[in-house]
Amino acid sequence: MNLDAYRTRVAVTGGAGFIGSNLLLYLVPLYSEYLFVNIDCLTYAANLANLSSIESRDNYRFEKVDVRNAAELTACFDKYRINAVIHLAAETHVDRSIDGPAEFIQTNIVGTFNLLERAVSVAKENPGFRFHHVSTDEVYGSLGETGTFSEQSPFGPNSPYAASKAAADHLVRSYHKTYGLNTVTTNCSNNFGSLQFPEKLIPLMIRNATERQPLPVFGDGLNVRDWLYVEDHCRAIDVVFHKGEAGRTYNVGGGNEVTNIDLVESICRIMDQMLDGDRHEELIRFVEDRPGHDRRYAIDSSRIRDELGWLPKYSFEAALRATVEWYLDNDTWLESCISGDYRKYYERMYADRLSGEK
Ligand SMILES: NC(=O)c1ccc[n+]([C@@H]2O[C@H](COP(=O)([O-])OP(=O)(O)OC[C@H]3O[C@@H](n4cnc5c(N)ncnc54)[C@H](O)[C@@H]3O)[C@@H](O)[C@H]2O)c1
């Protein structure tokens, strides 16, 4: 391929996962002058079929590369003369990080380190080399009844997942301060939308409700999350990647604080309207709380709004309804996610949760 036809050649890591797929579906058609190289080692959370509508585009390539493997990364960066990174590849499920943190350390910390090393090396010849690190609000820990996380909030990660992301955020910061790498970091709240692996709350509840299986809700269900529709997150990444100030971090949130129980009840109500049969709320079961479960997250997004002009476009209610509809229309996609070995994990996790029913 003629690499010179593309002035920006972006490695998007984790592009076969939930946010990565949505991001590539958004960016690839929008920026035909950029080459997008999807770097993903295809863990259980990946699904290349998500990208079928863009896979034959000239400005898109997929490479099965593990960010834990520095040699594979070097070969891939050389092959495409990569001059920008949007880094999403990660182990992402908090419950799995409690069961087995080792992979989280390797992928989220060592993988980020490998990418930063590669970026610094390439940036010597490409001084503008942009490194966008996609991170989470979970690095800040938990809030009480009031207040929000700003970019000045101290880090206080409570799960191995959050700690591994916080470590990666610190590494990114240090590569800017020490080596002058052109970095930006986005710390985003909980995303929802299509193509999310059904171990996460919203698709898990929709799938179980369609099967008329119990809907396990941790603790008293009053933990609060600030939900953001994934397309709004993709637009935020686009804005920060292009306009964010080097070395700066940007919090991204939807301003939609909802308790877990309210969210599950809303999903049930939407499903009652869309499907015939008994009320779905009857399936809700309160189960033993997750260890170290953060009580409340809320994001102050004023920096990205005021400095870069980003605003969420979708209302929570409309986006939730569209999301439920998408999973109901794509039940074969949902089932394909939990086929094979993953089904055993999924069934064990699910049985474990219900065994702690209160
Ligand atoms: N989902 C959310 O609500 C949310 C919120 C804020 C930030 N984030 C961050 O956004 C990013 C993407 O999250 P997601 O929900 O799409 O995750 P996901 O679990 O759906 O996808 C992760 C992707 O990374 C790939 N991957 C994992 N380990 C890899 C490795 N060693 N080498 C190469 N690829 C690897 C997987 O194959 C998968 O395609 C993560 O960095 C996450 O921390 C997620």
What does this structure look like?
It contains twelve helices and 13 strands. Helices cover 43% and strands 16% of the residues. Strand 1, helix 1 and strand 2 form a beta-alpha-beta unit. Helix 4 packs parallel to helix 5. The protein has 358 residues and is α/β, with parallel strands linked by helices. The protein binds nicotinamide-adenine-dinucleotide. Nicotinamide-adenine-dinucleotide binds next to helix 1, helix 4 and strand 5.
Write the CATH architecture name of the domain at 3-193 and 226-252.
Answer: 3-Layer(aba) Sandwich
Mean pLDDT: 94
Please state how the strands of the largest beta sheet are arranged side by side.
3-2-1-4-5-6-11
- Biggest β-sheet strands, sense, barrel: 7 strands, parallel
Give the topology string: H per helix, E per strand. EHEEHEHHEHEEHEEEHEEHEHHHH
- Helix fraction bin: 40-55%
Q: What is the straight-line distance between the termini?
A: 59 Å
Total helical segments: 12
Which CATH first-tier class of the domain at 3-193 and 226-252 would you pick? Alpha Beta
**What is the CATH topology classification name of the domain at 3-193 and 226-252?**
Rossmann fold
Structural category is: alpha/beta
Instruction: Name the CATH homologous superfamily of the domain at 3-193 and 226-252.
Output: NAD(P)-binding Rossmann-like Domain
- Small-molecule binders: nicotinamide-adenine-dinucleotide
Strand content: 15-25%
Number of strands: 13
Uncertain parts: none
- Please tell me what the overall shape is: globular
Radius of gyration: 20 Å
